[in-house]
Amino acid sequence: MLHPSYGDMIEALNTDVQEGEAPIVNSRYSVVLATAKRARQIISGAQPRVECAVNKPLSIAVQEIYHGKVKIVNDEEETAATPKK
Q1: Which domains does the chain possess?
Q2: Predicted TM-score (pTM) of this structure
Q3: Which of 6, 35, 43, 61 is the most buried (most CB within 10 A)?
Q4: For residues 34 and 72, which has the higher predicted lDDT (pLDDT)?
């Protein structure tokens, strides 16, 4: 079983959203994609941003996202933030 649950993660991610704004994530699929992407970054050598009892990249990524230590951005924001070559 996943702890925190998908519902808890979605709620935690959307806590800073103001009334009338679109939620940061609105589906389990979004949470899964973001968590998998962060886990791949950790596998590639990125430093974990939280202490986690389990030393697996996916568990670390879940805890980072749940505690707001990493920011989830959509494709448009990511493209805008990436320097052009």
Answers
A1: 6-81 (3.90.940.10)
A2: 0.77
A3: 61
A4: 34
